[in-house]
Amino acid sequence: MADRFSGGTSARQFFPARISLTSLREAARSCRGCDLYKHATQTVFGRGRATAPVIIVGEQPGNEEDLAGEPFVGPAGRILDQALAAAGIDRGDAYITNVVKHFKWTARGNRRIHQKPGTTEVTACLPWLEHEIEVVKPDVLVCLGATASQALLGRDFRVSVQRDVPLRTSYAKHAVATIHPSAILRQRTPEERSNEMARFSADFGVVAALLRGEP
Questions:
Q1: CATH code matching the domain that covers 11-41+50-211, chosen among 3.40.470.10, 3.40.50.150, 3.40.50.720, 3.30.1490.100
Q2: What is the band of 4 on the pLDDT scale with cuts at 50, 70, 90?
Q3: Is this structure's pTM higher than 0.85?
Q4: Distances (CA, A) of 130 to 24, 26, 43, 111, 141
């Protein structure tokens, strides 16, 4: 697959000679394609079945993911699990990953606060994700939030406009974009969180229907 962005350093120089999820995961541990590795605990690569029918792609690992070395194991991951369960999708049937494999953060007291990755960092890291998708060959690609959606569906893609609308893509038979689950955690009131959670779960209902072959 061709990179969606051009220019800058790339992860490609760190690729293994033979491509598989295992070899990619091992090689990514030594990736120096951008500077994020300098301040991250470790690379957080995707996890899930090599034959998963659905790939779910977020932005980057958070604090808990950086420490655990696993994607979506923190608060946003628990929101994702709830939505998958509500839609009848077994997390074990999904391959879950992020566009960027290292945690980008800034210090605020003793806390590490998430920072959005820039275009240069997305550019450098995107080849890992593209090869994850090539290996898994999912039927449905789910993009969580603007970073994932614009990296895979085009810079002009807007989740607010095209949310939950199935699209054709070179990456998979179907692609669906929705918000990142961390957006639900940022809602101000319990009512707002409940409403956003219901809509987020409904978005995964669309994914479930596509997995069942429904139009």
A1: 3.40.470.10
A2: very low
A3: yes
A4: 11, 16, 16, 32, 12
